[in-house]
Every structure is written in structure tokens, then in C-alpha cells.
Amino acid sequence: MLLVYIDHFGGKPPVAAWEALGAGSLFVTGSDLKAVVMGSGVEALAGEAIAHGAHSVLLADDDRLKEFRPEVYADGLSQIIRQSGADIVLFPTTSRARELAALVAVDLDTGITPDAIQLVRQNGAIVATRPIYAGKLLTTEVNLARRPQLLTVRGRSFPAPDSDPTRSGEIARIELGLAQPRTEVLGYKQSGGGVSLSDAAIIVSGGRGVANNPALHPPPELTNEKEQEIWRAREGFKLVGELAGVLGAAVGASRAAVDAGYIPYAHQVGQTGKVVSPDLYIACGISGAIQHLAGMRTAKTIVAINKDADAPIFKLARFGVVGDLHQILPALTSALRQRLGK
Ligand SMILES: Cc1cc2nc3c(=O)[nH]c(=O)nc-3n(C[C@H](O)[C@H](O)[C@H](O)COP(=O)(O)OP(=O)(O)OC[C@H]3O[C@@H](n4cnc5c(N)ncnc54)[C@H](O)[C@@H]3O)c2cc1C
Fold first, then answer.
1. Whole-number pLDDT of residue 342
2. pLDDT per position as a tens digit, 1-10
């Protein structure tokens, strides 16, 4: 039997949660697609899971699950998996669900296949394809030795089913004997203005090149070189943001841009940032270091704008523009504004 874990923050699921449900629906016959919803006051989310295609929901609604504390959630989810007898459990590849899946794998003494982009059923087991070595290779693997099979599915690799509120299904409440929490959540602080790179269909990203506009003169009160650089970079990122605004895109960045203080970490794409698979990725002033490519090489179409015709990003890009982004971005934004009537 297959279970899909519905990840959420405060009752709000990312699109990736429904994509995992969509992935699960490929492997069930009849009415056997079961979702697991855990939290406090999350009955409405269980209803949403049904609307998105779950035939039934195992609901653990408990005050002790109000905050996402990995050790408590892992304890609860391990109990649910044991009780249900599930032999396959799918999670979305979000930070929370990845951590949770790893802890559950330890609890249940089983393995985990992370970041699957393709799933096939063979002889009752799920065979997963996933990128390895920073996306340079794809590996196809199956856990033969242990059950349940735990897999996380990469965002935007499977279609999210549409919501149909008229659907109905059973919501079974589960009582859990939960371990005493060892941590207390004191509060949350938003970082980076709520960017949702993982869900974005289009991403416009800026790199160190965004700050390279010597023709732009900072205000005279900025005498320090670093302040001038950051001012130039922020002006440059305004151009990135304007293009993103016209396209309804999210704004991404390279680590060089983040480390230099041009933009918050929440925007970072790459090995130590977000791994994204948008339909369109526009890289502006980004050289294409392997660690950056690791985060975006599965984008369906890559466009690169760079002054240096030999920049490695052009090897991966479908369309390349060799030139100064400070001239190209305003022209592109204005042309798209006209074309899209915005
Ligand atoms: C362990 C580790 C993890 C890392 N993780 C990440 C990660 O998650 N994400 C990440 O991005 N990097 C990561 N890095 C850093 C990575 O190696 C690169 O240093 C970084 O990606 C470079 O960023 P960049 O392309 O913006 O800068 P640069 O490499 O300096 O490239 C800037 C580019 O801008 C172009 N340019 C300059 N001016 C203009 C202009 N006016 N118009 C157009 N083009 C212009 C230049 O030609 C150049 O190609 C990691 C490194 C390590 C060691």
C-alpha cells in the first residue's frame, strides 16, 4: 500500500505536496491513494487532500503537532506507517519533508531514495530515477532489501492534480502516543520576503555581473567602495525584478550575489541553495559554475545573458545573449511588456 505525506506550514501546503500526491496516483489502482496529514487544526487540509485526488486520509490532528518539530513528527509518522502496513511512502522534496523522511527511515530501519524525477513500478517496487553528482548524471535505483520504500519527489517533476472540491473520501482520525518533545519553538521569522523558488514556473536570476555597471554613479554620500558596489547591485537587481514582474516569475540569485550581500539567501539557487526545475530559467550575469548548475540544470529552457561569450553557462543554455545585462534587460522587459500587454 502506498502513502503520500502531505507537507505543510501552518496548514498551508506547498504545490510540491500535491505533486507528490500526483506522483502517487500513478501507482494505485482503484481507490487506494492514501494521504497522511499531521498537524493541529488541520482537518481542512485533509479535505484539500481529498479534493486533490486522495481517496482517503489518515489524519493525526493533535496539539503536540502544532509546530513542526522533526523528532515528534518522525515519531508520529513512523507509528502511522507501521500501523497502516504501507510498503511505499512518498514525500515532496521540501526541506521539512526531506528531514522528516530521513528520520523516519532511521526509525523504521529502511532506506530512502531522495529527489526522484521519474518513478516506475517494477515487480511491486518503485524504481526511481534521480540526479546525482550535482546533476551531472542520472541514476536509476531501487531499494530491494528493506520495506517500506521511502522516496522524496523533486518539485515540478510530476503534475499536481487539479482540486475538485466535489470529491469525497474517508478521513480516518488516528490517535498517536507521541514522545515528549525535546525542543520548543519560540517563534518564526520570515527570511527573504517569502520567495517561492521551488514552485515558480519561471525564474529570473542575477549573479555577480548584476553589480557591474560602471556607468551608473552612486549617490555622493556613499563613499565606501563596498557600499557603492551593493548600491549598484541593488539597482541591477531592480532590472532583474522588473523582468520577473512582467513574466510573473520569481527572482533567483547565484551564491556570489548572496555572499556579497546583494540579495538575501532565500533567493540562492544551487548546490547550497534551492534546487529548482522551472519551465524557463533566465540567468543574468551568472558564469555557470558547477555549483550553480547543480541547482537549475533541470530547468526546461535556459536563457543566459552574459558579457563573456566563453562563460560556461552558454554550454547549458538553449538561448544565449552575449552582451551587457544592463542594456539587454530593460530592452527585453519593455518588449515583453508590449507583447504581453502589461
Ligand atoms: C561548496 C560550494 C558550494 C557552492 N554553492 C553554490 C550555490 O548553491 N549556488 C551558486 O550559485 N554558487 C555556489 N557556489 C559558488 C560557485 O562556485 C561560484 O562561485 C558562483 O556560482 C559564482 O557566481 P556568479 O556566476 O554570480 O559569479 P561569477 O562567477 O563571478 O560570474 C559573474 C558573471 O557575470 C558576467 N558579467 C559581468 N558583468 C556583466 C554584465 N554587465 N552583463 C552581463 N554579464 C556580466 C561575467 O562575464 C561572469 O560570467 C558554491 C561553491 C562552493 C565551493
1. 83
2. 999 999 999 9
Ligand 1 atom closest to 325 (CA) = 42
Q: Count of residues for the chain?
A: 342
CA of 234 to the centre of ligand 1 (A): 16
Identify the band that residue 135 occupies on the pLDDT scale cut at 50, 70 and 90.
Answer: confident
CA 129–ligand 1 middle distance (angstroms)? 28
CA separation for the pair 41, 225 (Å, rounded): 52
What pLDDT is stored for residue 106 in this prediction? Answer: 97
> Which residues line ligand 1 at a C-beta cut-off of 6 Å?
207-209, 212, 254-257, 268, 270-273, 285-287, 289, 291-292, 295, 305-308, 311, 324-326
Cα(71) to ligand 1 centroid in Å equals: 37
> Looking at ligand 1, which atom is closest to the CA of residue 313?
49
Task: Please tell me the distance from the alpha carbon of residue 155 to that of residue 196, in angstroms, as a whole number.
Answer: 11
Q: State which of 274, 306, 314, 329 you would mutate to test the pocket of ligand 1, scoring each by most atoms of that ligand within 8 A of its C-beta.
A: 306
Give the distance (Å) from ligand 1 centre to CA of residue 207: 6
Q: Please say if the pLDDT value at position 157 is more than 80.
A: yes
pLDDT at residue 196, as a whole number:
81
Nearest by Cα to 72 from 177, 227, 143: 177
Q: What angle do CA 165, 34, 276 make, to 5 degrees?
A: 80
Residue closest by Cα to atom 37 of ligand 1: 209
Q: Which of 46-50, 182-186, 285-289 has the lowest mean pLDDT?
A: 182-186
Q: For a pLDDT cut of 90, what percent of the chain falls above it?
A: 87
Q: Is 198 a residue whose pLDDT tops 90?
A: no
The residue nearest atom 22 of ligand 1, judged by CA position, is: 256
Query: Do 268 and 260 contact (CB within 8 A), yes or no?
Result: no
- Domains recognised in the chain with CATH numbers: 2-173 (3.40.50.620), 202-340 (3.40.50.1220)
288-317: per-residue pLDDT in tens?
Answer: 999 999 999 999 999 999 999 999 999 999
